[in-house]
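Posting here for the record, re: zinc ion.
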Amino acid sequence: MALVTMREVLAWAQERKVAIPAFNVDTLEIGQALLETVEAEQCPAIIAVGQAAIRDGKLAALGKIVSHLAADVSVPVVLHLDHGQSVEQVVQALCAGFTSVMIDGSRLSLEDNIAVTRQVLQIAQAAGASVEAELGAILGAEDNIAHDDSKPFLVRVQDVVDFTGAVQVDALAVGIGNAHGLYKGRPNLDFQRLQEVKDVTNVPLVLHGGSGIPGDMIQTAIEIGIRKINVATEIRMAYVQGMLSASANGDYYEMVTAGKDAVRQMAKSKIDLFLRR
Ligand SMILES: [Zn+2]
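Prediction output follows.
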């Protein structure tokens, strides 16, 4: 089917009190494995293109690949820009057919974050696309977007009140101690803060840095109200590990097949966890 916006799939998740997986796509083969899995599992999904792929010059090409692959599946698929860095980049994504964009103004002042998000909302609404914003820093580095870890990083509840009062976004990513990449040990997530945020807004909440968060913590986050969970690192790692595991003969298609199998398994495990089944 044709691509949909994040609004549709988040409403679906809200009804069922589950979270939609947002998987990052970095290659054609990862995209094939992801779309095959969401079709087999009959799971609506968000396929996101991140900043490393964009720096690698693949924004439009990956967008076309995902649109093409999604046309052959029967579940709703969203083509989403992850951590959009500027209004210009949002426009590039929308021109490439993305149905959803994130504008990451989390490193700006609240006032400037509201201003850039408002600008993106106007443009995205004209294109019929949905918008995700971010409050509070997400630790670690996603695709080399590093935050200063010494600064207070937890989302402030009053900021959520002010922000969601000023701009009507479709989804809001919050920093509750979550981090990009893999965690050293058990993550230190502030569920009390997440509950306080949930109590002041009806905007669907997003958990970035989903790679390596234990299942019980994922369940708690979903119970409180997380409706989208991003998984990038674990998908990429699964692909690389799968490829390496089959590299003995140096045969490209043996490696690709193993890489895709590993991505399918990883994606299925996240779908089972996020959809609570
Ligand atoms: Zn992220």
